[in-house]
Amino acid sequence: MIWLVLVAVLFVAGGTWLVAKSMLVRGVVFAAGLAAVGTYFLLGRSDMPDDPLEARIAQIEKQWDEQGPQTLTGDQILALAERRAREEPNNPGPHLAIGTLMEIAGRPEEAMMAYESALRRAPDEIEAIKKLADLRFKMTQQVDPTTAALYREWYRREPDQLRVGYLAGIGTWLEGKKPEAEAIWADVEAKTPPPQVRGMYLALRQMYGIDPAPPAPSKPPG
Fold it and tell me: Are residues 65 and 98 part of one domain?
């Protein structure tokens, strides 16, 4: 590193020496250059070698192997996932890992982009479908057409996920596909024996304006 500092000082000093007309100005620049080099030697770490990214990642991988992934920080795991994403551009796995880390870090927009990247590489990747559907719903509290399509595919692949089926039905209804939505709900409710769970679904229907809210109880005559 020290040679970079010296070269920079020489360039600045040489240029100023040619342009400046005053010996006083030239002397000040020369003294400033010497002071910069001296400060670097006193406060800097001129003996420290460069620590390129690949060397740091190699250290992280060694720590993973010897001490286990639980010893790594989120930033270290993210560095590994990003490196793997560069090395395996068609693999959705690293993008799923990045999305999960972004969610944990409270950065949902970046998580969404990572999940979308995973789906572009593998449109049938169920974990990406699940994570993106729920993240979109959490961020907006809406079941827009894109989210509804994700929920429908999730429910088709995992028909025991009743919450997912009911949300798919809500999004489908809001798209104007009422018979299809009713068919999804009928399938869900046939698998949902406890009345209290059905009550939760009815509350969702009312929340999104599919069913009218129950009338407020009338006050007794006073």
Answer: yes
Rounded CA-CA distance 175/173 in Å is 5
Total domains present in the chain: 3
In a domain, 181, yes or no: yes
Identify the pLDDT of residue 52.
Answer: 61
Contact 206, 198 (CB under 8 A): no
| CATH code of 105's domain | 1.25.40.10
Pick out the chain residues at pLDDT < 50.
1-11, 13, 15, 17-20, 25-26, 34, 37-50
pLDDT tens column, 33-64: 545 544 444 444 444 444 565 667 777 667 66
Domain carrying residue 135: 55-140
How would DSSP label each residue in 34-92? HHHHHHHHHHS-TTPPP--HHHHHHHHHHHHHHH-GGGS-HHHHHHHHHHHHHH-TT-S
Task: Please compute Rg for the chain using Cα positions.
Answer: 31
Shared-domain flag, residues 132 and 155: no
